[in-house]
Amino acid sequence: MAGFLGFILVLWVVLGIAVGIDASINSSQSGFLWGLAVFIGGIFGVLIYVLVGRDKPGRETSTRRTNQPRSAGTAGQGDVSHVCKSCGETYRTTPSTEIDTCRSCGGIHVERV
């Protein structure tokens, strides 16, 4: 009986950690808090996370992770003024515009071209 309860406890902790890691990738909320919610809430926490917590699509394909600049859907609106060094997102704005974070990946490595 103690072995079964130990297995359930380990499974519970691993599930909380797995949800926390997934939430840090696929959610705009804190991965730590989602992991804690699953650890405390058990299967109900997992259901809530799956239904509410995942607000970003699944993992990106390898073609998306290239360092080649990609169009942001603003073709023909001027030259590229900024590029995200993390994902390659391009921005077509006035050169004096400040961009703090990438709208695509959330990265902070957006530089002027």
Automatic annotation (TrEMBL):
This is UspA domain-containing protein. Residues 57-80 are annotated as: Disordered. It comes from the Archaea. The chain crosses the membrane at residues 30-52. Keywords: Membrane, Transmembrane, Transmembrane helix.
